[in-house]
Amino acid sequence: xxxxxxxxxxxxxxxxxxxxxxxxxxxxxxxxxxxxxxxxxxxxxxxxxxxxxxxxxxxxxxxxxxxxxxxxxxxxxxxxxxxxxxxxxxxxxxxxxxxxxxxxxxxxxxxxxxxxxxxxxxxxxxxxxxxxxxxxxxxxxxxxxxxxxxxxxxxxxxxxxxxxxxxxxxxx
Length: 172
Known about the structure:
Layout: H1 9-18, E1 24-28, H2 32-40, E2 42-47, E3 59-62, E4 65-70, E5 73-78, H3 80-84, E6 93-96, E7 120-124, H4 129-141, E8 145-153, E9 158-166
Parallel strand pairs: 1-2, 1-6, 2-3, 6-7
Antiparallel strand pairs: 4-5, 7-9, 8-9
């Protein structure tokens, strides 16, 4: 069981059972889970907070948080210019686990064009209404199918939720 705010154990199990070792993975938000992922995958970690850079063998992309206004959406999100040229051309999984809730993840909705959506997408923290709304909007805009997971997180006494989205009709 996780002792901190890392991906739920069920999320790691899903990844390890469905994404072949050696595959490329992109994660928005880095943390202790990056250490586990980088052992078996080629990992690219988009991170704004310098204290979380280089804690694993991931390929880190330091993208500071910037103000944006695009397509009628305003807010704060990772600097998209830092991300665009740094991602691999192909990846099997996109993990949306950042920025933290104090900043919000809505900025991805104004930057959907940065990412390849022909892969699995894991969105953590969908027990929070804003993160669930972001997941629903991505699912609708990109015509993806959803599979939801719940895991009890004892230290915070909360049922944590995450979703896996895919263009495939069947999600394992």
